[in-house]
Write a structure and sequence with these properties.
The protein has one domain: Rossmann fold (3-Layer(aba) Sandwich), CATH 3.40.50.300. The protein is globular. Strands 1, 2, 3, 4, 5, 6, 7 and 8 form an eight-stranded mixed sheet that branches. About 25% of the residues lie in helices and about 35% in strands. It is α/β, with parallel strands linked by helices. It has four helices and eight strands, in the order βαβαββααββββ.
């Protein structure tokens, strides 16, 4: 699935993504400043999260309780080695019955058995192109 959206339409984009998800593990591929965390905030609101949603850049993971499902939001930008994922208990997070939203997922790939990839491309300052790939199984 591919579509283009304006940042002002991000809630509609989030609803469209959730309607097409086939996996609870969603990997975000996009350059810095493309709006990954902004989109994750919209997804969390759609899933009934009422807490303040912030980037887990320094904490690496934020857990949110939603009215529909729980959400684990990972930002692995600062992870340099796979061993660091073991240190934070990454495997334990993955077995929870929750959506796993993972920014900068490259080093997490060996831990994942099923996932979907979401790619965001910057068109201009207020427009993004989104691609959601089918479920991948390793």
């Amino acid at each position: 699935m591919e579509f283009t959206y304006k940042l002002s339409e991000i809630d509609n984009a989030a609803a469209k993504i959730l309607a097409h998800l086939k996996s609870q593990v969603l990997l975000f591929n996009a350059p810095m400043g493309a709006g990954k965390t902004t989109l994750i905030k919209a997804l969390c609101h759609q899933l009934g999260v009422t807490d303040e949603i912030t980037s887990p850049t320094f904490s690496l993971v934020n857990e949110y309780k939603g009215s529909k499902v729980d959400v684990m939001h990972f930002d692995l930008y600062r992870i340099e080695h796979t061993e660091q994922l073991y240190d934070i208990g990454f495997e334990d997070y993955l077995i929870k019955d929750a959506f796993q939203l993972i920014e900068w997922p490259e080093l997490a790939m060996p831990f994942l058995s099923e996932y979907q990839e979401l790619t965001i491309e910057i068109i201009d300052s207020s427009t993004r192109k989104l691609s959601l790939k089918p479920v991948q199984k390793d």
